[in-house]
Amino acid sequence: MKYRSKVRSSEWIAFLYFAYLAAVCWLRGLPISRRLLVTAVSLAAAAAIWAFAASPPIIRDWMPVPYILVGYYLTGRLFVAPSEALESWLIGWDRRLLGDPTTRFATWPGWVVGYFDLVYTFCFLLLPGGFLALAATGRSALANHYWTMVVTADFGAFAPLSVFQTRPPWMLEARPVLADRSVHRLASYMVQNATIRVNTFPSGHVAVSLAIALALIGTMPLAGGIFLALALSIGMGCVIGRYHYAVDVVTGAALAILVWAGVRMCGV
Known about the structure:
With 268 residues, this protein is mostly helical. It has a domain at 81-266: Up-down Bundle (Vanadium-containing Chloroperoxidase, domain 1), CATH 1.20.144. Helix content is 67%, strand content 0%. The protein has helices at 9-24, 32-52, 57-60, 64-76, 84-98, 110-121, 126-136, 143-158, 169-172, 182-194, 204-217, 221-240, 246-266. The chain is globular, with a radius of gyration of 19 Å.
């Protein structure tokens, strides 16, 4: 049985993003092997998006999760060399706002900084968690609205990496002084071994988590409020653990709000 309907806006955005990756990798100073890898995976992902647009809703509604994961790791392959001038500018703003960011939160209770580290570490669970909240309450019809918000915010945060290439603060600074070291060690291990190990400006963590909250809050105020609190916690965790610069967090939040306004204006 065929389920083909018109391609959703969330699918078009993912499709166009992979087309962007396939093109932009040839404009960067990448080794030919990496250019071919990015191109091949991008084209395969674009083909998969088109193919799964004909799948049953129970499959189609969840497919943005792998699209986002593939897009994230593939975007990391565009990194060539850091812009030290941009890194200095980002660090400069952190010092203006926080003083010494590595010791700024040293006096905060261990359970507080541990909470922020923990929420940041497992923020990837919000991605399927937000849609699960919709599906579990019979609101699967809002799948395209939800994923349009999330995919646009996510890829909107990833896309600038092809131009603005920086290393995360944890790679450039001393280890932050925090009262809770065990959770921070876990978070640092995850960041160093399960991520692309480069900085996204704006912060994808903040943009996506806030987009999820904004996508839910109109129809599910309680769930949306919970996800909003988690999004704010993730933003704090980004800075406290030195996973992101403060400017990344602010621009990530601004991106999510712009996406929310744009989606609302378009009536998706």
